[in-house]
Design a protein that fits this description.
Layout: H1 2-20, E1 26-36, E2 39-42, E3 47-49, E4 53-63, E5 69-81, E6 89-102, E7 111-125, E8 133-149, E9 152-164, E10 170-171, E11 185-187, E12 191-204
Antiparallel strand pairs: 1-4, 1-12, 2-3, 2-11, 4-5, 5-6, 6-7, 7-8, 8-9, 9-12, 10-11
């Protein structure tokens, strides 16, 4: 009984502190995501696409000098399949350093914002012997923040990723010289575009 009373008091103190404290300088946001878009072509020139699949992401944000902006480090990860005649899986990860800026009144119930970043994309195919590829990528997006209680808010966002692939260069070349298909996958163009729909809860401190 005493433990329950102490736990209740501790929770009450935390809630009251969150309700009366200053705006947080840091935020952590775990996300569920759904990513779509993008594709490659095989050595024969046959194009195939990456299928839309769910994934996960996480962001660490910290206050910028401007009151309506934050710096942010975002990591997003997805495992997907190709729609090729012989489907294979591929893990795709994005690491982006950038930030967000508010587009409305931060005291409103629904607060729109813009987001962006620059960093890297890493593609890891499941086919044995093929190497992973890491390329420059940047992202742009926007969404809304919906306060739940002080220091806790719902975040819904859409974000597009553009990865530089250098045109028709070969990708994922085999790490073994004995392979009969050392570079079986090529880029379809100069860039690869994908987009995420993200939903998560931000916790400030």
């Amino acid at each position: 009984m005493l433990k329950r009373i102490l736990l209740t008091l501790a929770m009450g103190i935390l809630i009251c502190g969150a309700a009366q404290g200053a705006e947080p300088r840091f935020e952590i946001t775990p996300f569920f995501t759904h990513r779509n878009g993008g594709g490659f072509q095989d050595a024969a020139g046959q194009e195939f696409n990456l299928l839309g699949k769910s994934g996960a992401a996480g962001a660490i944000s910290w206050a910028a000098s401007a009151s309506d902006a934050q710096y942010e480090l975002l990591f997003s990860k997805q495992s997907t399949l190709t729609d090729a005649a012989s489907p294979s899986s591929m893990r795709i990860e994005y690491l982006q350093l950038g930030g967000t800026t508010l587009l409305g009144d931060e005291t409103a119930h629904v607060v729109p914002f813009a987001a962006g970043g620059i960093g890297a994309a890493r593609f890891t195919p499941s086919i044995a012997g093929l190497t992973q590829e890491t390329r420059w990528a940047f992202s742009l997006g926007g969404g809304v923040r919906i306060p739940i209680v002080k220091h806790v808010r719902l975040r819904i966002e859409a974000r597009g990723y553009l990865t530089w692939l250098n045109g028709s260069s070969s990708l994922f070349c085999s790490s073994t010289s004995a392979s009969t298909t050392p570079c079986a996958i090529r880029a379809k163009g100069q860039t690869l575009f994908q987009y995420d729909v993200l939903g998560g809860v931000s916790f400030g401190f």
